[in-house]
From TrEMBL:
Signal peptide: none annotated. Pfam families: EF-hand_5 (PF13202). InterPro entries: EF-hand-dom_pair, EF_Hand_1_Ca_BS, EF_hand_dom. This is EF-hand domain-containing protein. Keywords: Calcium. It comes from Adineta ricciae (Rotifer). Residues 25-42, 48-64 form the EF-hand domain. One of its GO terms (molecular function) is calcium ion binding.
Length: 77
């Protein structure tokens, strides 16, 4: 199951697909995680620490998906 499938129904809806595409576009080196420079291509770099929950300096797919769910909830998307 994809980390982007927020409702765990086995199907990525429009918003979930957009989040996955956004993360894939930003992942320039295709290592499956975003460093601060890659992250800054699609998000406000000031949010990096909020997304990087394990504090390893990278935002991986599950962290990015969770960060998107948190920010979308905060802003009512």
């Amino acid at each position: 199951m994809s980390a982007f499938d927020a409702d765990r129904n086995g199907i990525l809806d429009g918003r979930e697909q957009l989040d996955r595409i956004e993360q894939n576009v930003a992942d320039v080196d295709r290592d499956g995680a975003l460093n601060i420079n890659e992250f800054s291509r699609v998000e406000d770099p000031r949010k990096f620490a909020m997304y990087d929950t394990n504090r390893d300096g990278l935002v991986d797919n599950p962290e990015y998906a969770q960060g998107e769910r948190i920010t979308e909830h905060q802003y009512g998307f």
